[in-house]
Amino acid sequence: MSDARNQAPYGSWRSALAAHDVARGAALPEWLDFVGDEVWWTEPLAHDGGRSALVRRGPDGTPEEVLPGGRDVRSRFNEYGARPWLPVSGLPGDGIVFSDGADQRVHRWRPGAPPAPLSPPAGPGAVHRYGDFAVRGTELWCVRETLPGTGAEEAPDVRRELVALPLDGTAAEDPGAVRVLAAGHRFLTGPRIAPGGDRVAWLGWDHPDMPWDRTDLMVAEISPGGLLGPAVRVAGGPGRSVAQAEWSADGTGRLFAVTDPDGWWNPYEIDRNGGSRPLRAEPQEYAEALWRVGSRWFLPLYDGTLAVLRGTGGRRPALLAPDGELTLLDPDGPYTEWHSPATDGRRIAAVAAGPAHRPTVVLLDPRAPGGRVEVLRPPSREHAELWPAPFRRAYHGPDGEEVHAHVYPPHHPGHRGPDGELPPYVLLVHGGPTNRTHMTPHPHIAFFTSRGIGVLDVQYGGSTGHGRAYRDRLRGGWGVVDVRDCATAARGLVAEGLADPQRLAIRGASAGGWTAAASLIAEPELYRAAAIHFPVLDADTWQRTTHDFESRYAETLIGPWPQHRDAYTRRSPVHGAAGIRAPFALFQGSRDAICPPSQAERLLERLAGSDVEHTYEVFEGEGHGFRGAETVARTLRTELELYGRVFGFTPDPG
C-alpha cells in the first residue's frame, strides 16, 4: 500500500502547532478541592502572565473564574509554593481562604463580598508566606515562612512556624492576634488536625536533608484552649522519608502515613507510641518527592478506606482497606497518570492524564457501579492529530544499571521522512533533579515531534517513581550519574535504529540545565547542540546564593562542603566551559531566585573570545520557570532555529 503522506526532511515538516499554541496549552490544573458539591481548582493563565486563577466548572462545562478582580491564588512558600487555598467548611456560603500571589497575605472570600485579609502585613522588617491550611473552630491553622525584609532566603534568620489566624480577620490589623503553635524544625509542612480536634500532626526536617531523604512525623496533643502539648516524633527519622500523613475520616482516630523504611513509599498505620504497621508492603510508590508543601497522594474516606495513587513510573488510583486489601479503580482506563487528588469523603476528584490524553480534572465515585470516571474539565483536543505515540524504554548502562526513558517519535499525519533517513532527536532532561516527568501529550514535545524531531525524555538515576535505590543513585553523583545515564539512553536509542547519531541535541531546565550543559562538556561527540533553560551552572555559587530550601541540597547531590570542594569545581559547567564545542541557546529569567542569572553570565564570560555559537536571552520579570506566553513562544522558536542551523534543515517556525 502506498504512503500518501508528503515526504519531507525530518525537522522541516510544516505543523499547525505554533509556539503560541504551546504556551496556551501548557497550563495544568492543580490544587483541587471540594466546595460543597463542586470541585474547584487552580489553573495558570499564560495569557495573563501565568497568573494562577481559582476556577470551577461553569454551566456550559468550561472553566470559569471564581474570585473577582483577577486574583492570583499562589503561595511562594519555599519558593516552589504550597497548597494555596482551602474551603472554610463544606458549606459554599462560608467561602474560602487563599494566599494572594501579589502580597502573599492570607485572605478570606465569601460569595458576594470582596476578599478580606486574615493575616497582617509583614512590615519592613520581614516577608511572610503562608500555605497548607486547616480550619479548627474559629481559627485557620497553617504554616508560615518568615524571611528578612530583603526577601533573601539565604539569610540565617529564615523561620518556619505553625501559626493560627482568627477567621474573623482581627489579625489583619493586629499582629498580636496571630498565635504561634509550634516550630522545632527548619522546614515544616502545614498541620493535619485529627477530626476530633484533640491531636495534630505535621512533618519537619532540617538541613542538610531534603524531604525525600529524611523527615520526622510529629504529633502533639491539643488542649481545649487550642494550645499544643509537647511534640513527639512517631515516624521517620534517619534514612526514612515520610511523604504525607493524614488522620482517618471514619472517627477511629487512626493516623496513616506514606513512608519508605523498606525502600519504597508505602502506606503505614502509625500508633501513638511510634509503632507502625504496613498496610501494604510492595515495590510500588504511593507518593512522590515533596517539592511543594501540601501535596497529597492518598486521602482517607468516610468508610475507613484510603483512596491512594500508586505505581512505578506512573500513577493509578486504588482503594486500600485497613487490612491491606487493594481494589484498583479504573484499571483499564486511558489515564495512567493521576495527581492532585481531593475528596469529599466519598467521591474522588483528581487530575488525570495518559499517553493520548492531556491532563484533565475528573471525578470518580468508587462505590458507583463500574466506577465510571466523569470528566469535569474537558482537555483541549486542539491539534490532537499531531500528538506523538510515546512508549517506554529501559536502557542499560556499562555496569548494567537500568535507565528509564519515554520515547516520543516524530509524528505528523501529513508528513513522513525520506526513505533511508533517520530523524534527529532531542534528549529532554527533567529538573529537580529528584523528580520525574509524566508520559503524556506535552505541547512542547509535540511542537518538535510534529516537525519531524523526536524527543527522548530520560528518567535518569535520581528520578522518582522507581523506589529509593533508584533515587539514591544520584547521591554524591550529580554531574556524573545523570550525564552518564543520558548518554546511555541516547546511545541505546541510536542502537535501536531510531535516531540519527549525528543529529542529537540535549535540552534541560534548572537541574536539567546543569545536566545538559555538563553533557556538552563530557560528551562532545554525542551532542551537537543544546537548549539550556534557567540552569544551575556553578554548584558552589548555587549553594551559596539559592533559596533556603535547596541551599544544602548539593551536599546530598555532590558531597559536604568544603570537603568535596574539588568535585564542586570539577563538575560545574562554568569551570569546564572551555570544553564546550557545540552551539547552544541559554535562557534566563531576570527574577529567578533559585538559579540567578549571574551563573549564566559567568559561563558566557568563560566563553568570551571562543568561536562557539551561542544565544543568550534574559526575560524581564520571569522567575524560575517561564510563565508568560510570549516568553514560552520565543524560547521555542529560538531553540527550533538552532536545531535547524545545526542539523541542516529549514524549520517551519510556527
Written description of the protein model:
This protein is an alpha+beta fold and 654 residues long. It has a domain at 6-11 and 383-647: Alpha/Beta hydrolase fold, catalytic domain (Rossmann fold, 3-Layer(aba) Sandwich), CATH 3.40.50.1820. It has ten helices and 39 strands. It has an eight-stranded mixed beta sheet, with helices on both faces. The longest helix is centred in the last third of the chain and has 19 residues, at 629-647. It is globular and about 75 Å long.
Give a topology summary.
Layout lengths: L5 E2 L11 H7 L4 E6 L2 E8 L5 E7 L5 E3 L19 E3 L8 E4 L6 E4 L6 E2 L8 E11 L2 E10 L10 E8 L12 E4 L4 E2 L3 E2 L5 E7 L10 E6 L10 E5 L5 E6 L7 E5 L6 E5 L5 E3 L19 E3 L5 E5 L5 E5 L5 E3 L8 E7 L4 E7 L2 E8 L8 E5 L13 E6 L5 E7 L6 E2 L8 E5 L13 H7 L4 E6 L8 H4 L9 H15 L8 E6 L1 H12 L6 E5 L5 H7 L7 H5 L7 H7 L12 E6 L7 H11 L6 E6 L9 H19 L7
Parallel strand pairs: 1-33, 34-35, 34-36, 36-37, 37-38, 38-39
Antiparallel strand pairs: 2-3, 3-4, 4-5, 6-7, 7-8, 8-9, 10-11, 11-12, 12-13, 14-16, 15-16, 16-17, 17-18, 19-20, 20-21, 21-22, 23-24, 24-25, 25-26, 27-28, 28-29, 29-30, 31-32, 32-35
Helix pairs in contact: 1-10, 4-5
CATH classification, class level of one domain: Alpha Beta
Low-pLDDT stretches are: none
**Helical element count?**
10
Task: Please state how the strands of the largest beta sheet are arranged side by side.
Answer: 31-32-35-34-36-37-38-39
